[in-house]
Amino acid sequence: MATPKVCGIETEYGIIFKGGDVNPITASSIIVNSYSKGNDDLVGWDYIDEHPGNDARGYSLDDYLFPEFESQLVNTVLTNGARYYVDHAHPEVSTPECRNALEAVLFDRAGEEIIRKSMQIANEGLPEDSEIVVYKNNSDGKGNSYGCHENYLISRQTPFAQIAQQITTHFVTRQIFCGAGKVGAEHRGLGPKGATQPAFQISQRADFFEEEIGLETTLKRPIVNTRDEPHCDPTKYRRLHVIAGDANMSEVATLLKLGSTSIVLAMIEDDAFPEHLIIKDPVHAIRQVSHDTSLSAQIMMTDGRMLSALQIQLEIIDAATVYAARYGLESVDTEVGNDVLVRWAGVLDGLGADPFTVTNVVDWLAKKRIVDGFAQRHGLQGDDARLKAIDLQYHDMRLDKCLALRAGLDQLFDHTDVAHAMVNPPASTRAYFRGTALQRWPNDVIAANWDSVVFDIPNQGLKRIPMPEPLRGTRNLVGKLLSESRSPSELIEKLSTNL
Question: What DSSP string runs through 71-132?
Fold first, then answer.
């Protein structure tokens, strides 16, 4: 049976400093530091398990790559189990590990509100004519892209070559319901052969992919990333690090992105993905799909068929429905998995019948409706700079400016749920232990990362608590132990006794 699909999202936010000559790295540091100043109990990140050069194909480039992190920049662990830091020139929020896609959406929303709070605190300390503005998008309009990365727990036993070959079909075509939409294109000549540059396309990221498979995340981006950095027991698990996706403003689109991918990965682990459903030229196809808002472009398959992205997705969901009936959806959480199947089928039906019936779910359609309406009212051509400004404003994290908040998108969580998730960890994964330890003993936790917490114990020195199992450390397993321990030393003693 498939490995439980523990998952999470890492979102790099775009950033602009208005009213001053401040570079993005400094502006990002101001944003993250602003949140840190308002929270005295934040703890630094432990880099000991960072190995971004490990490749799933069996080798490591750690000794040949520049470090992925800069230790002098702020990098914190939050009480909800998340990581909040400066990633090169962007503020980034990495959600805690979540047991299912719906839970991950909640903590992604919490990340948005953490960014908004940071922006508010930062701007209160700036001169009146200065402002930092943050955007949840994937492109700066100048040829640079930044990521919204997904992570999924998968079995080490499933051959990586099989995972890469089969999941690629889903990555190329799922953008029709989880693309964020984009005015224009930034890379001339990178579109489908012989095609003109689109006035509007489905995905913000598609033009930036140049390889089918590879280790890079910022140059020559691959559709399937081979980073082999599990952050858990490496003999049992992999962490599939997914870079081929957009940052969504739609909560339902995020749910479908994570939920459908979790189901497809479970199918692959159980040898239930249709073996014939393989795209012949994925790099060409991912741009071809993005540039085709009519959803009619034909993709060459390895079996000789020509199918549209919608037809491919319909075949995938048909296979997923059969899989659910035969194997069940426990690996993705049965209730959440069944809800995803219903929503997934519904959005595909809507895209096939009348795409504009699903503007309440699909970001690129919600954005396109706004862009087209503005262009028609003002008689603008597709390359008008004002339309690109509308595109950017859709992702604006300022409540009074964000167009996505006015687009009629369906919501899954209310303010109370999100506010709780900003400071409290999920109960369903090891993030509960990490977050609760930080809440209870902020002065005794020296550092933390995904798979360990380090305490400074009086008269004993530093004690590292390893957490190699993502589904250990949950509230059900350690909640009572944490609540009954009066100090970290007592906690560690009890943990040693119970091991």
Answer: TTS-EEE-TTS-EEEEETTEEEEEPPPBSSHHHHHHHHHHHHHHHHHHHHHHHHTS-TT-EE
